[in-house]
């Protein structure tokens, strides 16, 4: 029979960070270092992105550095810029979280992670053109050039919804706000700006000068990748998040329902070269999802190994 410590190691390798953190003091006595690593891993698995590496001094520096690359800055001037410098590490983590949740059959959490991925996917498409991941402190001057309707509230010629106009208006000035206003903007409005940017390059019926800063040699490619980002948000897979008759959190899909929704989504997406990447058999639990994200990003985006490396480090501590 396995010892209690062996069971903790098995739980650690299954990414059960919360359980290990709760049980470790009863098994190994002084468990401060183990509890710190468990809290760190659980924050990442739960996508608690305010500060993945907060109070994690007992965690190896390399793991903390990789976690910070997925974190949204909590003040307008915070350095480094984390996920505002590039969303690619964050999407690598999202893919790893999706895979872990699938293998643990935590499908409600998996669908929630897919929903988050869909909300910010347009910014992943825009990153090559912007040179960052949609940092409000570094928006192109051209967004508010003469003739631009981006962020002009109430302009009836603009195809943005009222909430998108409000978010776009806020994003152009939020870098000058206090930290509280900055965090409130990211909690409520930044994902709407992602969708608004995609609308500007894909489906605007009354184009203004807001996107004139995008060079003509990259405009068509950006539009195609942004269109696929918007399309992903409307797929049967992402719509599982809203399928329950009594709102979010009720009615967890089965593995068969998830796979069926993904197959129907792949069929919808496969109508152009970018969306066709979803048809790849790349070994992921939802085959083709990393390939699709890579096609939208314009560069390879692979599942990270951050959670796996945290689990291995935790197992090593428990085996001492």
Description:
The radius of gyration is 21 Å and the shape is globular. The chain is mostly helical and 320 residues long. α3 (32-45) runs antiparallel to α14, α5 packs antiparallel against α6 (107-130) and α6 packs across α9 (190-202). Helix content is 55%, strand content 0%. The protein is built from 14 helices and no strands. The model has no long low-confidence stretch (mean pLDDT 93). Among the domains are: 4-87 and 306-319, no CATH class; 141-212, no CATH class. The protein has helices spanning 4-13, 17-28, 32-45, 61-68, 88-103, 107-130, 162-171, 179-188, 190-202, 216-233, 236-239, 255-269, 289-297, 306-319.
Rg computed from alpha carbons, rounded to a whole number of angstroms: 21 Å
User: Biggest β-sheet: count, sense, barrel?
Assistant: none
Strand content: under 5%
Order of helices and strands: HHHHHHHHHHHHHH
Overall pLDDT level: 93
Helix/sheet category: mainly alpha
* Span of the ends, CA to CA: 19 Å
Global morphology: globular
List how many beta strands DSSP finds.
0
The portion of residues assigned to helices is: 55-70%
Low-pLDDT parts are: none
Question: Count of helical segments?
Answer: 14
